[in-house]
Amino acid sequence: MSIQIEIRPERDFLKVVATGKFSLKEAERTFLEILDALILQQVRKTFIDGRSLVGKPATIERFCYGKFAANSVKLYHERGLYPFTKFAYVLIPPVLDPQRFGETVAVNRGMRIKVFDNPEDALAWLDLAPVQQPDAAAGRN
Fold first, then answer.
1. Residue 131: which residues within 8 A CB-CB, separation 6 or more?
2. What whole-number distance in Å separates Cα of residue 13 and Cα of residue 76?
3. HEC readout, 23-57
4. Which of 22, 54, 55, 85 has its CA 20 to 30 A from that of 93?
Protein backbone atom coordinates (compact mmCIF):
# COMPACT_ATOMS: atom_id res chain seq x y z
CA MET A 1 0.00 0.00 0.00
CA SER A 2 1.37 3.42 -0.91
CA ILE A 3 0.70 6.88 0.46
CA GLN A 4 -2.23 8.69 -1.08
CA ILE A 5 -2.79 12.40 -0.60
CA GLU A 6 -5.81 14.59 -1.12
CA ILE A 7 -4.85 18.21 -1.70
CA ARG A 8 -7.49 20.86 -1.12
CA PRO A 9 -6.80 24.56 -1.60
CA GLU A 10 -8.40 26.59 1.17
CA ARG A 11 -8.65 30.36 1.40
CA ASP A 12 -5.23 31.04 2.96
CA PHE A 13 -3.55 27.65 2.97
CA LEU A 14 -3.24 24.24 1.40
CA LYS A 15 -4.89 21.36 3.23
CA VAL A 16 -3.40 17.92 2.63
CA VAL A 17 -4.85 14.66 3.95
CA ALA A 18 -2.43 11.73 3.76
CA THR A 19 -3.43 8.08 4.10
CA GLY A 20 -1.68 4.76 3.63
CA LYS A 21 1.49 3.09 4.86
CA PHE A 22 4.62 5.17 5.40
CA SER A 23 7.60 4.54 3.20
CA LEU A 24 10.41 7.01 2.63
CA LYS A 25 10.11 6.83 -1.15
CA GLU A 26 6.36 7.49 -1.03
CA ALA A 27 6.73 10.30 1.51
CA GLU A 28 9.27 12.01 -0.72
CA ARG A 29 7.08 11.58 -3.81
CA THR A 30 4.02 13.05 -2.13
CA PHE A 31 6.01 15.94 -0.65
CA LEU A 32 7.02 17.02 -4.15
CA GLU A 33 3.33 16.90 -5.15
CA ILE A 34 2.58 19.22 -2.23
CA LEU A 35 5.31 21.65 -3.31
CA ASP A 36 3.92 21.71 -6.85
CA ALA A 37 0.44 22.47 -5.47
CA LEU A 38 1.80 25.27 -3.28
CA ILE A 39 3.35 26.94 -6.31
CA LEU A 40 0.18 26.47 -8.35
CA GLN A 41 -2.09 27.85 -5.61
CA GLN A 42 0.37 30.56 -4.52
CA VAL A 43 -0.19 30.02 -0.81
CA ARG A 44 2.36 30.18 2.00
CA LYS A 45 0.96 27.76 4.57
CA THR A 46 0.39 24.03 4.50
CA PHE A 47 -1.64 21.89 6.89
CA ILE A 48 -0.78 18.21 6.47
CA ASP A 49 -3.09 15.80 8.27
CA GLY A 50 -1.27 12.48 8.46
CA ARG A 51 -3.25 10.95 11.32
CA SER A 52 -4.36 8.11 9.03
CA LEU A 53 -0.81 7.13 8.08
CA VAL A 54 0.44 3.83 9.47
CA GLY A 55 3.91 2.44 9.92
CA LYS A 56 6.90 3.04 12.14
CA PRO A 57 9.61 5.05 10.38
CA ALA A 58 13.16 4.18 11.42
CA THR A 59 15.37 6.95 12.77
CA ILE A 60 17.36 7.04 9.53
CA GLU A 61 14.12 7.44 7.56
CA ARG A 62 13.13 10.38 9.75
CA PHE A 63 16.53 11.94 9.13
CA CYS A 64 16.36 11.36 5.38
CA TYR A 65 12.83 12.74 5.08
CA GLY A 66 13.68 15.89 7.05
CA LYS A 67 16.78 16.47 4.93
CA PHE A 68 14.90 15.76 1.69
CA ALA A 69 12.02 18.08 2.59
CA ALA A 70 14.29 20.98 3.54
CA ASN A 71 16.47 20.56 0.45
CA SER A 72 13.40 20.31 -1.79
CA VAL A 73 11.93 23.51 -0.36
CA LYS A 74 15.18 25.33 -1.20
CA LEU A 75 15.20 23.93 -4.74
CA TYR A 76 11.57 24.87 -5.30
CA HIS A 77 12.24 28.53 -4.44
CA GLU A 78 13.61 28.86 -7.98
CA ARG A 79 10.29 27.54 -9.30
CA GLY A 80 8.20 30.08 -7.39
CA LEU A 81 7.75 28.62 -3.91
CA TYR A 82 7.59 31.31 -1.24
CA PRO A 83 10.88 31.06 0.73
CA PHE A 84 9.23 31.10 4.16
CA THR A 85 6.39 28.66 3.51
CA LYS A 86 5.17 27.06 6.74
CA PHE A 87 4.44 23.34 7.03
CA ALA A 88 2.33 22.04 9.93
CA TYR A 89 2.11 18.26 10.20
CA VAL A 90 -0.44 16.47 12.39
CA LEU A 91 0.61 12.89 13.14
CA ILE A 92 -0.01 10.18 15.70
CA PRO A 93 2.44 7.59 17.07
CA PRO A 94 4.26 5.64 15.85
CA VAL A 95 4.48 7.81 12.72
CA LEU A 96 4.77 10.76 15.10
CA ASP A 97 8.17 10.73 16.76
CA PRO A 98 7.93 12.08 20.33
CA GLN A 99 11.45 13.54 19.96
CA ARG A 100 10.51 15.25 16.66
CA PHE A 101 13.81 14.17 15.09
CA GLY A 102 12.72 14.69 11.47
CA GLU A 103 11.38 18.13 12.37
CA THR A 104 14.70 19.07 13.96
CA VAL A 105 16.62 17.91 10.89
CA ALA A 106 14.44 20.04 8.59
CA VAL A 107 14.47 23.10 10.87
CA ASN A 108 18.24 22.93 11.14
CA ARG A 109 18.35 23.14 7.34
CA GLY A 110 16.17 26.25 7.22
CA MET A 111 12.67 24.81 6.78
CA ARG A 112 9.70 26.31 8.64
CA ILE A 113 8.06 23.15 9.90
CA LYS A 114 6.43 21.96 13.09
CA VAL A 115 4.87 18.62 13.98
CA PHE A 116 1.79 18.36 16.20
CA ASP A 117 -0.39 15.64 17.68
CA ASN A 118 -3.63 17.61 17.18
CA PRO A 119 -5.06 19.84 14.46
CA GLU A 120 -6.00 22.72 16.75
CA ASP A 121 -2.40 23.45 17.72
CA ALA A 122 -1.24 23.06 14.12
CA LEU A 123 -3.83 25.55 12.86
CA ALA A 124 -2.94 27.98 15.64
CA TRP A 125 0.76 27.79 14.69
CA LEU A 126 -0.22 28.59 11.11
CA ASP A 127 -2.29 31.54 12.41
CA LEU A 128 -5.40 29.83 11.03
CA ALA A 129 -7.20 29.01 14.27
CA PRO A 130 -10.87 29.97 14.28
CA VAL A 131 -11.37 33.43 15.67
CA GLN A 132 -13.41 33.39 18.87
CA GLN A 133 -16.43 35.63 18.51
CA PRO A 134 -17.16 37.76 21.56
CA ASP A 135 -20.38 36.81 23.29
CA ALA A 136 -23.03 39.17 21.94
CA ALA A 137 -24.85 39.13 25.23
CA ALA A 138 -21.75 40.21 27.17
CA GLY A 139 -21.91 43.73 25.78
CA ARG A 140 -25.57 44.29 26.70
CA ASN A 141 -26.72 46.06 29.85
1. none
2. 17
3. CHHHHHHHHHHHHHHHHHHCCCEEEEEEEEEECCC
4. 85
User: What global pTM score does this model have?
Assistant: 0.89
**How far is Cα 28 from Cα 79, in angstroms, rounded to an integer?**
18
Name the region of 117 (left: φ>0; alpha: ψ -120 to 50; beta: rest). alpha
Give the domains, in start order, of the chain with CATH numbers.
4-128 (3.30.750.24)
- Please, which residues have CB within 8 angstroms of residue 124's CB and are 6 or more apart in sequence? none
- C-alpha 30/C-alpha 77 separation (Å) is 18
> Before 134, cis peptide (omega within 30)?
no
The residue ranges of the chain whose pLDDT is under 50 are 131, 133, 136-141
Task: Say if strands 14-21 and 4-9 run parallel, antiparallel, or are unpaired.
Answer: antiparallel
CA distances from 123 to 40, 62, 72, 114, 130 (A): 22, 23, 23, 11, 8
